[in-house]
Amino acid sequence: MGNTIQTKEQLARLWTDIYTPGGKPDWSHILPYYDEHIIFRDSVQEIHGKAEFQAMTERLIARSKNLRMEVKNTARNGHVIFLEWEMIISYKKYPSSSVYGSSRVTLNEVGKIIEQRDYYDLWGDIFDNIPRFGKLYRKFMHKKFG
Description:
Nuclear Transport Factor 2, Chain: A, 6 strands, alpha+beta, globular, single chain
């Protein structure tokens, strides 16, 4: 079946192929697997519709110098696939840093991605890579949130 997700392994391959070695990320091969009415949400934003989702990917491409994804684990329960991942990103003026997270991807009845929810600690993972500041941030978080 063309442009539908059949297995968690297929989704993991598509996910990691987004990030070209030594170059800019490219979502063109995976966008056809998203439903026109995709709902995407992460710790920064909520997006409705494939056009807005594609615009978000283009903003990420413009901001990053290099970006790649490593899928560590996958699990599937019916129409829901979970991916645990590490995203290694280099912004134009900063060294590479890793962001660790997971994504819950929900497929519709024909196998298109209808919902994606990404979970990660963006600021903690970025701040960890800034000398001295990372330790202060973690100390603050521990003091305030236990």
